[in-house]
Amino acid sequence: KKVNVAVVGATGMVGRTFLKVLEERDFPIENLYLMASKRSAGNTVNFRGKDYIIEELNENSFDKDIDIALFSAGGDLSKKYAPIAKEKGVVVVDNSSAWRMDKDIPLVVPEVNPEDVKKHNGIIANPNCSTIQAVVPLKALHDKFKIKRIVYSTYQAVSGSGVKGITDLEEGLKGNENKLYPHPIAYNALPHIDVFMDNGYTKEEMKMIDETKKILNDYDLKITATTVRVPVLYSHSESVNVEFEKEFEVEEVFNILENTEGVVVVDNPKENKYPLALDAEGKNEVFVGRIRRDFSVDNGINMWVVADNIRKGAATNTVQIAELLVKYNLV
Ligand code: A2P
């Protein structure tokens, strides 16, 4: 079965990657519509050897026969246009944070909670990039050993802030002033991603905490997080410290992760092998290594988790959700 697909924000960093991933994964497209702002309207983009003209997004954009719309044009546009699309019978898969914590909207990582797509009412949310890569390895371990507490510490790439983040790093390395971040990102580490909340956490930290609970469907989990922007272009790295209810052998953790869909274990310290941001760039999988017992607590483990934030953290996961919609005959 082939479907009609719209890409909203087709010229953006994630939007362009949607097109690459759709092409690579042979997504069954009948008609493709590309939408962006007035600035890009009229430009052409090549997809599978054919040129497509970018249309300006407006209230009539979804009057056409569209089955699925992949949105990545920012939260404000998602808030405004996803309900319009939904009203016209389109199923929206939204990469922004606009709808993620809405209780009527599924928040889906296909390796973790694929069945949740069946509960959609016209909108499905794609989680935050840092959350996605963490829950892929955590789900299988949670099923087996039951997670009690998680401590997330992240080292996040500037591409998570879009083109402006990349520009701040590249210009900063040349000695020019930062425009986007409140401090230089070149040669620095900023413990500040998204805005600060009243509780002293950043919004990015609260996204990781709240979204993990929703995706794993376990609101009793104890989770804390510190999220940090580092001078890396692509791929987020994360230290994930987990305490389980049950006892385990480190060997079992290796076995489970080696057999978890979407996870690649890279862990051979003797040969200096562990997941690296540069190696994960352009890949769709989540790389896990430095797996070792946390001997400071009962039943604890440490892991180093790396994935391409634009791919698995955004475009790949969104396209995988669209694949589930087709697979389950929901469009
Ligand atoms: P455009 O390139 O025409 O500005 P990024 O997250 O990489 O900054 O990309 C944002 C995406 O959202 C781009 O495709 C951008 O299109 C699109 N966008 C931004 N503002 C609007 C708007 N007012 N209407 C439609 N698309 C928009």
UniProtKB/TrEMBL annotation:
Pfam families: Semialdhyde_dh, Semialdhyde_dhC. Gene3D superfamilies: Dihydrodipicolinate Reductase, domain 2, NAD(P)-binding Rossmann-like Domain. Substrate binds at residues 156, 229. Residues 4-120 form the Semialdehyde dehydrogenase NAD-binding domain. The keyword Phosphoprotein does not apply. InterPro entries: Asp_semialdehyde_DH (IPR012080), Asp_semialdehyde_DH_beta (IPR005986), NAD(P)-bd_dom_sf (IPR036291), Semialdehyde_DH_NAD-bd (IPR000534), Semialdhyde_DH_dimer_dom (IPR012280). It is an enzyme of class 1 (oxidoreductase). SUPFAM superfamilies: Glyceraldehyde-3-phosphate dehydrogenase-like, C-terminal domain, NAD(P)-binding Rossmann-fold domains. The keyword Lipid metabolism does not apply. Pathway: Amino-acid biosynthesis; L-lysine biosynthesis via DAP pathway; (S)-tetrahydrodipicolinate from L-aspartate: step 2/4; Amino-acid biosynthesis; L-methionine biosynthesis via de novo pathway; L-homoserine from L-aspartate: step 2/3; Amino-acid biosynthesis; L-threonine biosynthesis; L-threonine from L-aspartate: step 2/5. NADP(+) binds at residues 11-14, 39-40, 159-160, 309. CDD domains: ASADH_C_bac_euk_like (cd18131), VcASADH2_like_N (cd02316). GO terms for molecular function: aspartate-semialdehyde dehydrogenase activity. It catalyses: L-aspartate 4-semialdehyde + phosphate + NADP(+) = 4-phospho-L-aspartate + NADPH + H(+). Catalyzes the NADPH-dependent formation of L-aspartate-semialdehyde (L-ASA) by the reductive dephosphorylation of L-aspartyl-4-phosphate. Belongs to the aspartate-semialdehyde dehydrogenase family. Homodimer. This is Aspartate-semialdehyde dehydrogenase. It comes from Tepidibacter hydrothermalis. The lineage of its organism: Bacteria, Bacillati, Bacillota, Clostridia, Peptostreptococcales. The gene is asd.
